[in-house]
């Protein structure tokens, strides 16, 4: 059965490997530093390959010839680009993703024609969105905009209130609630806390009522 290779078992690689493993994928993790495997969750049962991923013998030991996917997530953008390039163009791994840390080095990935995820730019953008968020922000529009998904932060005036208080009279449904970085699907009885990040689906009318409640009206 084919497997997914995660190159670099640091903070991102270890989390990615465990998450794939939890989804019942066969995972092989490569790292040149043996201690890095300590980052893996204790339950992780995937294979660990010790070695420098720039060495083709190491990639082949990890089974790159049969791999269905490879994520190059070491802490070096040029190394990630080289490993991903090899995987994509020499070993023809069907799905290859490379991590880019340094936005100024993104060009390398573009020149190599690689699919990249810039964890730094993505993180910076998301932090900025939440820091500057003032009101309901529309993040997805369905149909012709009849129903949209909005994101907002619970203000002080809703602290300790049940979600149903916020939704009363507004045509909307909860999608997710994130508290301290962990998301759940809330229900009507969920008690809100200042700073909770909420996504809801709502009609335009529902969004108008929600906006009023967030501003402190009718609660
Ligand atoms: P982090 O910055 O926490 O995501 O960790 C990056 C990981 O990539 C570290 O555990 C490094 O040992 C690993 N790493 C860096 N270069 C290589 C390489 N050429 N081959 C294998 N692993 C590497």
The ordered H/E elements are EHEEHEHEHEHEEHEEEH
Helix content: 25-40%
Distance between the termini: 56 Å
Number of strands: 11
- According to CATH, what is the class of the largest domain? Alpha Beta
Instruction: Please give the CATH architecture of the largest domain.
Output: 3-Layer(aba) Sandwich
The main sheet orders its strands as: 3-2-1-4-5-6
**Amount of beta strand:** 25-35%
Bound molecules: adenosine monophosphate
Poorly predicted runs: none
The structural domain count equals 2
Rounded mean pLDDT is 92
Question: How many H/I helical runs?
Answer: 7
> CATH topology of the largest domain, which one?
Rossmann fold
The name of the CATH superfamily of the largest domain reads NAD(P)-binding Rossmann-like Domain
Largest sheet: 6 strands, parallel
Radius of gyration: 22 Å
Which structural class do the helices and strands define? alpha/beta
Net shape: elongated
Describe this structure in words.
The chain has helices spanning 11-22, 56-61, 77-89, 106-111, 119-132, 163-167, 204-214; strands at 4-7, 27-31, 47-50, 69-72, 95-99, 116-117, 137-142, 147-153, 172-179, 182-184, 197-203. By secondary structure, it is of the alpha/beta class. The protein is built from seven helices and eleven strands. β4, α3 (77-89) and β5 (95-99) form a beta-alpha-beta unit. Adenosine monophosphate (AMP) binds next to α1 and β2. The site of adenosine monophosphate (AMP) has 19 residues, from α1 and β2.
